[in-house]
Amino acid sequence: SISAALRLLATMAGQTIEGEIVREITLAIDTRYASIVVVPKPDEVNDSNMPRNLHNAAELFLRVGMVENAERVKDTTGRMLDMYADNPDGTTNVKIGQGCVCWTCGFCGLPKGGGDSKVAPPSSAAGKKNKIPKTSPGPCGNCGETDQTNYVRVTRKGMDDLPWIEAPPLTEEERKKKKDAELAAKRKEVEEQVKRALQERQKAGVTTCD
After folding, report:
1. Angle at the Cα of 53 (from 51 to 58), degrees rounded to 5?
2. What angle do CA 160, 164, 167 make, to 5 degrees?
3. How far does the chain reach from its first CA to its final CA, in angstroms?
4. pLDDT tens sequence for the chain (210 residues)
5. Torsion of CA 38, 42, 43, 49, to 10 degrees
6. CA–CA distance, 162 with 75 (Å, rounded to integer)
7. Alpha carbon of 53 to those of 12, 15, 143, 163: distances in Å?
8. Backbone angles phi, psi at 100, to 5 degrees
9. How would DSSP label each residue in 164-183?
10. Which of 20, 89, 181, 200 fits a 20 to 30 Å CA distance from 175?
11. What angle do CA 30, 143, 99 make, to 5 degrees?
């Protein structure tokens, strides 16, 4: 069960594994993650090992050495928060729905096949507190896990909850355009570096051969 898995993680967090090379790992965990509340299942309500928010979740992953999971919490949650920080104007196309956190891989976001394609609500928009679905959370949008998952709520102090939002998957044409744009940007960067290097050599009085 999820409770058993979390108890194991909590136990691991307080232990040192013999022979393990201990490395100091620095990972900036945004304090905004604390505003995203983990919704416990009925049998987890009184479980003291249950992380109460995504900030707790990322810290727990780090304490047990599951760095990749902590980074995935950070990356997936950060993208969602950044979309709201940009103050959606109500015309941006996104996928919107009830977010989940996966304890197997650390992914935070819409479940696989979940979410509706809608326009993002402005971050200042008012609405009722999110009604948590009665169905089980998951499957995870990254690894497909169906059991070790929990719903999350994007809360705001003194204001209404926000839905989880994500950029919709790119089409094949959009992926090609993005790749071409990245290659063009990289080519331009290299050309600028070469240009600066030649200018520095000229300033130093070094001539180049044709």
Report:
1. 75
2. 140
3. 71
4. 555 565 556 555 554 434 343 333 445 667 888 999 999 988 888 888 889 999 999 988 888 888 899 999 999 999 999 888 887 666 667 888 889 999 999 999 999 877 554 444 444 444 455 567 777 888 999 999 988 999 999 998 878 888 899 887 767 787 788 788 888 888 998 888 888 888 888 888 755 555
5. 20
6. 19
7. 19, 23, 21, 16
8. -135, 160
9. EEEPPPPPHHHHHHHHHHHH
10. 89
11. 50
- At 183, the amino acid letter reads L
Rounded Cα–Cα distance for residues 138 and 148 (Å): 9
Whole-model pTM? Answer: 0.66
Distance CA 177, CA 35 (A): 35
What is the H or E stretch that residue 117 is in?
Answer: strand 116-119
Q: How far is it, in rounded angstroms, from Cα 202 to Cα 199?
A: 5
Backbone φ, ψ for residue 111 (5° rounding):
-65, 160
Can you say whether residue 133 is alpha, beta or left, with left for phi > 0 and alpha for psi between -120 and 50 degrees?
beta
